[in-house]
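Hello forum,

I keep getting stuck at the same step: I have a sequence, I want structure tokens, and every attempt I make locally crashes halfway through. Rather than fight my setup again tonight, could one of you with a working pipeline run this one for me? It's a single chain of 102 residues.
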Amino acid sequence: MTHGLALATKFCEHWKNWWTAFPDVNFAVQELIAESGTSTVLTRWILTGTQSGQFRRAAATGNRIEVEGVSIDRISNGLVVSGFDAWGSAVLRRQIWLLTAN
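Reply #2:
Ran it on my machine without issues. Output:
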């Protein structure tokens, strides 16, 4: 298996877990910044959904989630070739009771 195919397979498995836990998952783009002459795109987004399946160690809670994040992606030939995401993972864990608020 090529490195690219292995990464694509891992990516699909990762999102399959998300879609199983949050079948109504939605990314709402709030802001998109791309400068002419560069291959970098910045996206500010809000992820929402309802936890109706198991996610990591958390059984289905029925809780609605809302998490803000930012993605920085590099584009080549119309495809994302690398990326970085920063998002409120602690916020998500609190919303599905994997983390208690202190």
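The CA atoms of residues 71 and 82 lie 10 Å apart. If your local run keeps crashing, start a new thread with the error log.
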